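Summary: Need help interpreting a holo structure output

Steps to reproduce:
1. Submit the protein chain below together with the SMILES for manganese (II) ion.
2. Request a joint structure prediction with the ligand placed.
3. Inspect the structure token block that comes back.

Expected: a single structure record containing both the chain and the bound molecule.
Actual: see attached output.

Input attached:
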Amino acid sequence: MATYIVGDLHGCYDELQILLEKVRFDFTQDQLYLTGDLIARGDKSLECLRFVKGLGNRAHTVLGNHDLHLLATAFGIKKAKPWDKVDAIFTAPDADELMDWLRHQPLFIHNAEQGFSLAHAGISPDWDIPTAVACAKEVEQVLQSPDYLDLLTQMYGSQPDLWSPQLQGIDRLRYIINVFTRMRFCYTDHRLDFECKLPLTQAPQELRPWFNLDNPIFNTENIIFGHWASLVDTPTPTNIYALDTGCAWGNRMTLLRWEDKQFFTQASLQAHK
Ligand SMILES: [Mn+2]
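--- attached output ---
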């Protein structure tokens, strides 16, 4: 049995299949973890959703910002962006099952046995692992409850940008969602920044990637994430695994085999402007 973790699919179904063939993924024994953002940008978002759902308990994904946005769009809260190329999902005969399945996926996976944690964007500089586990559960419970439409309507926005255990209600849930699905840079006082789109080397001095802030788990915990495609080819600490290498942007898809830490990559097959 082997454990694989793949970066954001973003509709790049063919590249995933090539990678799974390359490693001779064993559908009867192996496990596939995914960093979320299964859909949007690439040409085969519907195929990606169906495939991961079809893997059943062999697949473990976390939710990304695009996955949550897809849910909001499917339920009429937001409008689809044409360049996301997700319309085929909404008219598919299995659309309801796919959205129901997606709504039941977690925001965070802590695999204590194999020694890694997985989130789409990252873990708050103010959380330890038990807090991250508990916070993810708080959001998951609402998303899986009859109140999910309220949550999907009110999750948008970038405030509050600083954690406090006293946060309550939608403010608390929005902070948790933003950390797990949207975070990239933070200020040194741990406030989240959502403005800076610059590459790491050009970012203003007061901003740091979240994993460079002073949280002890950022030195000790193996943390795997996606979301930040422009980190491609940027070195990160050895326990910090940035797996989104921008396949949907014409770069490549990255698959990590956890047992021997071997990386497998597949160049994007899509035509790009
Ligand atoms: Mn993302």
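--- end attachment ---

Reviewer comment: Residues 134 and 263 are 31 Å apart (CA to CA). The pocket of manganese (II) ion is lined by residues 37, 64-66, 120, 227 (CB under 6 Å).
Status: needs-info
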